[in-house]
Amino acid sequence: MKKFLQISALFLITFFYGQQISAYQYIRVPEKFKDAKSNKYGLNILLVKKLKAKQFVILSETAQSSMTENNDPCEVLSAEIIDVSNMFTNKVRIDFKDCNEKSVASFEGKSKIKDFEEGMKDALQDAMMKIAVSNPVKGLVAVQKESVPVTIQKEEKVRETVKVVSSKVPTAITNKAESPTIQKAEVYTNGTLTLNKIVLLNGEFILANPNSSVPYGIFKPSSKKDTYRVQLSDGTTTLGYLEEGKIVIEMPLPDGTFNNQIFSKQ
Known about the structure:
By secondary structure, the chain is α+β, with helices and mostly antiparallel strands. It has helices spanning 2-22, 43-53, 116-128, 140-144, and strands at 26-28, 57-59, 76-83, 90-97, 103-111, 148-153, 159-164, 185-189, 194-199, 205-208, 217-221, 227-232, 237-243, 246-252, 258-265.
């Protein structure tokens, strides 16, 4: 049970970080990163492409203060890629900072591909899977200027401080028992894939794969009873609903049709 709660906490932290990034619309990607090793293999071009696919507006270094709707540099996040590979694995970390040079969130990706160029690109795509689609929050700048430090207790008992920049993000994430985020854990399967259902606040829940750090799906209630708006791990949005105790997800197919994935409670 303890191991399950640790895995659940990891999912939730990843989810909240992804939501922090999605609260912004504009991201600045430099032509050259500060980490010289990250300037190889066209990673900046790939990062721009992937961020645009998540509906972010990409600004160049010269356009940061002149292309936002309100002409406010604090509406822009700055992105940096750091090569954190070791001799066995290609790994990258994407760092996002606000206008005060304060870290908003970091996302790490890795790849088993040994070739440097293909492996680094694959690792970057792995990191991007953890970032939600852009959904700008009004009044974000005012909240950002009064940001509250949050302490996260890691398993290794090493503490690090991050900044919460959106009022929609909980003001504290800890491993203490009083956290109201995790209410109930249930196991669902479609016959080939087994997922944990983790109930959040306000009727929301996620389906989490124990073998992945990215939630399989994030479910938010719609105006119709037992019907949810679902964000899948690749950023795709679709519909899901509860039917006779089962979770049904309408999975989009390349030809524009849908295939129902039905998960039954174990």
